[in-house]
C-alpha cells in the first residue's frame, strides 16, 4: 500500500520532448499528472491552457490534477473552467489569494456539480486560518512551499507547520480533505513533508526533465 500520492508537474519538462517525458512517467507507473496553468497576472509567468491538456488526455490515461494560478476577470468561474473540463480531469486547485469570496463559493459549487475534487491553495505568506471556513467543503488543500510561478525554486520551511496544523484541524473536525504540497521537493525536503503529514506530493524538477536519470527510484521513495 502506497503511503503518499505523487503528482509530477510537467512544468519543468522540455516541451520539445514532452511526449518523451510523459512516456517515462507512464513507464514509472505514475497515476497523477500535475498541470500548472499560469496567467501572467496572478503570477509573473505564462504556461499552458486547455489545448495541451486536451492533447495529453487524448493520448494518455493519467488522472489530471489542475493547478490554476490565475485570476478570473470578466468571466464567471464556470465560463473560465469549462474549457478545462476534459476527460480524466479529477481535481482542480484554485488560489485563495486570487479569488473573491463569491468566486471561491462559485468554484466549490461548480466542482461539486461536476463531480470534480475541489482544492484550494494557499501561498507561503497566507495563514491556514484564512481558509478555515472552506475546509469542510473541499477535498484537497494545496500548501505552496514556494512562491507560485516557477519550477526549481527553494523550499520554504513554513509550509511544514501549515501541513501539521491542517492535519490537526482535520482530525479534530473529522474533515476529509487531503493535504498536498507543491514546490522545492527534493530528497531532503521530501522527508520533511512526509513527517509533517502530507498526503499528496507535487514535484517538478525532481521528477521531470532530461537530467532525471533515476525516476523510478525517486517515485518509489516519494510513495513510501
Ligand atoms: C510552481 C508550480 C509547481 C512547480 C514545482 O508555481 O506550481 O508545480 O512545477 O516545481 P519544483 O518541484 O521544481 O519546485
Ligand atoms: Zn503547481
From TrEMBL:
PROSITE patterns registered for this protein in UniProt: RIBUL_P_3_EPIMER_1, RIBUL_P_3_EPIMER_2
Swiss-Prot/TrEMBL cofactor(s): Co(2+); Fe(2+); Zn(2+); Mn(2+)
Keyword Metal-binding assigned: yes
Coiled coil: none
Molecular function GO labels: D-ribulose-phosphate 3-epimerase activity; metal ion binding
Enzyme class: isomerase
Keyword presence, Transferase: no
Reaction(s) the record says it catalyses: D-ribulose 5-phosphate = D-xylulose 5-phosphate
CDD domains from the UniProt entry: RPE (cd00429)
Record's keyword terms, sorted: Carbohydrate metabolism, Iron, Isomerase, Manganese, Metal-binding, Zinc
Pfam families linked to this entry: Ribul_P_3_epim (PF00834)
Family: Belongs to the ribulose-phosphate 3-epimerase family.
PANTHER family assigned: RIBULOSE-5-PHOSPHATE-3-EPIMERASE (PTHR11749)
Known partners and oligomeric status: Homodimer.
Name of the featured protein: Ribulose-phosphate 3-epimerase
Protein's gene: rpe
Amino acid at each position: 500500500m502506497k503511503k503518499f500520492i505523487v503528482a509530477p508537474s510537467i512544468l519543468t519538462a522540455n516541451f520539445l520532448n514532452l511526449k518523451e517525458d510523459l512516456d517515462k512517467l507512464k513507464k514509472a507507473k505514475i497515476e497523477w499528472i500535475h498541470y500548472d496553468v499560469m496567467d501572467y497576472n496572478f503570477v509573473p509567468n505564462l504556461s499552458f491552457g486547455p489545448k495541451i491538456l486536451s492533447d495529453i488526455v487524448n493520448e494518455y490515461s493519467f488522472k489530471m490534477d489542475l493547478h490554476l494560478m490565475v485570476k478570473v476577470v470578466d468571466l464567471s468561474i464556470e465560463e473560465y473552467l469549462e474549457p478545462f473540463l476534459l476527460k480524466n480531469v479529477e481535481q482542480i486547485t484554485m488560489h485563495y489569494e486570487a479569488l473573491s469570496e463569491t468566486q471561491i463559493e462559485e468554484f466549490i459549487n461548480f466542482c461539486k456539480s461536476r463531480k470534480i475534487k475541489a482544492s484550494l491553495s494557499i501561498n507561503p505568506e497566507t495563514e491556514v486560518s484564512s481558509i478555515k471556513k472552506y475546509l469542510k467543503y473541499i477535498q484537497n488543500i494545496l500548501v505552496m512551499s514556494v512562491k507560485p510561478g516557477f519550477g526549481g525554486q527553494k523550499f520554504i520551511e513554513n509550509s511544514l507547520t501549515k501541513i501539521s496544523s491542517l492535519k490537526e484541524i482535520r482530525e479534530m473536525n473529522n474533515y476529509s480533505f487531503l493535504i498536498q504540497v507543491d514546490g522545492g521537493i527534493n530528497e531532503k525536503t521530501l522527508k520533511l513533508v512526509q513527517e509533517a503529514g502530507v498526503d499528496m506530493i507535487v514535484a517538478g524538477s525532481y521528477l521531470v526533465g532530461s537530467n532525471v536519470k533515476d525516476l523510478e527510484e525517486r517515485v518509489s521513495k516519494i510513495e513510501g
